[in-house]
Specification:
Glycosyltransferase, Beta-Lactamase, 5-stranded mixed β-sheet, disordered N terminus, 18 strands
Length: 733
Amino acid sequence: MKRLSIPLLLLAAGSAAAAPATPGIKLNQVGFLPGAQKLAVVPQGASASRFEIVGANGKTVFSGALGKPARWDASGETVRVADFSALNTPGSYRLKVDGLAPSAPFTVQADGYRALNTAALKAFFLNRSAIALEPKHAGAFARPAGHPDDRVLVHASAASGARPEGSVLSSPKGWYDAGDYNKYIVNSGISTYTLLAAFEHFPAWFTRQDVNIPESGDGVPDILDEAMWNLEWMLTMQDPQDGGVYHKLTNLKFDGMVMPHAAMKDPRYVVAKSTAAALDFAATMAVASRVLAPYDRQWPGMSARMLAASEAAWKWAAANPAAIFRNPAGVVTGEYGDERVDDEFAWAAAELYISTGKDAYYQALQRDQAAVTFPSWSDVRALAWMSLAHHRERLGPAADHKLIADRIDELAAGLAREWRGSGYRVPMKPADMVWGSNAVILNQAMMLLQAYRLNGKPDYLMAAQSSLDYVLGRNAVDTSFVTGFGARPSQHPHHRPSIADGIAAPVPGWLTGGPNAGQADKKDCPPYPSTLPALSYLDHACSYASNEVAINWNAPLVYVTAALSELTPRPAKSMTDTLIPLDTLLRQEQVLQFDSFSNDTALEIGLKLIGMARASKKSVAVEIARNGTVLFAHGMNGTTRDHGDWIRRKSNLVNRTGHSSFYIHTQVRQNGGDHDAIPTLDARDYAAHGGSFPIVVRGTGQVGTITVSGLPGVEDHAMVVAALKDYLKVSEI
């Protein structure tokens, strides 16, 4: 996100300017999870009123009617939406409309975002400072080490009695911030937090991931190893004498378009301490202290060190609340200046409250003033509420649980309204098409997903899916804004290694900035195709305003792709599969009944279920309740609080209907209904997904539920049935 005048000779190096909105079909060029909402945008000018989906063999597998025309002011278009959400059979497809060229190919597959998520995280590794990228880890993008930063000078603006101007510090590691080669605490804070939050919220996803970095296989998930590379640098930016934090480590001016190892001639400096840097540091270290606590064997004492550093930075900021950063004379690199720091105080207070349990930090949150917006480096209030929402069940009595949930829901409800009314079915407004607009929409998605985790409203999940669809191709310039992914990805990002490495393809996995109505670089670049916000994009190396990359833009891409993969409901099988007959499911309920049901019965069945899961190398959460009292509860490694919410909602359905949750699921689907939108049931409290089974005592009736969560619904149900058959010695049903 750094301004730089590009020499005229470079203008020939990029592609031509992006074309205006074309009358083609726009959709997610990477693909969809089977259970996700699946939308495409079709121009109004098409004469047809219907669309069809064709498979790799050219045969039609699905067809439907196009929606009503709707205008999107951001691009000046009137379009119609094609909804093919019911297509959940894995495969490769295209969407066709008479009179138009077929869409870009896309896939439907259960692990459809794994490669994208891994590449987005790998981009951080490929932007590391102070390490050579070996071919075995970086492939064609291997390069020598850049900027060891073991002899960094204290700038005059950062001088103190103990560290006068010109003092030499060692501040290695860390990530290059964006398309340039400098390192900034403010932007590192939100970027590192987002990666840590992704792991904290979805540990099972990241525990299974192998990114192929030097630390892979060390017993720590790769996402935490990657975050640690930057956290260790951040720790070096704190002055041990007073707890203050230097705002950035930088050259005095930007480097040219060269590789990192060719950009080490000029001296590097730590520049001025700032309130924003201290608070972003405090918040990030507080989060890291709790996320890394289970890995004290790998990093002895690090968790405690980080928490102490966090509290020291908080104390410095409290004593220096108005140390607003501005570039000193002679320093022209990225400023990350922020005139207001109330949001940073709120975020740091929230994280310290969660990690220490000290009520004084919760009082410092000033929660009545800290409204919720979607996050950015300059407004981090939302991160406070995001963390409080995730940890709300274990917060002390000082915390207002309802306020936390309400703040998240208020923001999500507004974003969902925008999504429903948008011609392109996205939550962003034209005013959101600013520098890094693609990060804006993904941070909106991240907040929608927090609300979905709280209350399960389907609109929130669908709006988040649409946000990802937008950056992967369902946009006015028909571009996948992630390098290396999609039929028409960004090819010429404003990113020095991608420009200078001599390789035609850019470094993969980077999210480019996206349409920017400000067009701040238009004097240095070819003409933009339009002044309309959604068309203000150039796939050109000169365009730092619309085509740069940045770590704080990639971080929500990592979060959102993992979250959608973990949260999107899994269909029973595919739309063409025959469901289990209702009479078979009813027969299971009639046969798998008990003469009595004691606490010991619950324990034996619960342990049986856990043993079955272990034997099949699966991870589930199990709860067995009788008359409202939980007799057995266990979450295996990799399960989260979300599994507990699924258990609550599925067992509520059984208690209300007297049937297994899979029976209701099957009944609704066989009647042509949507099992996620049953008119008489609030999706926040009831889930028609398999996995909960009624405990029936003969002569008494239903007395409780046995519920499993963690697998596709049909598999959750099958596991419960198998355990009951084994316990009750039933051979056939």
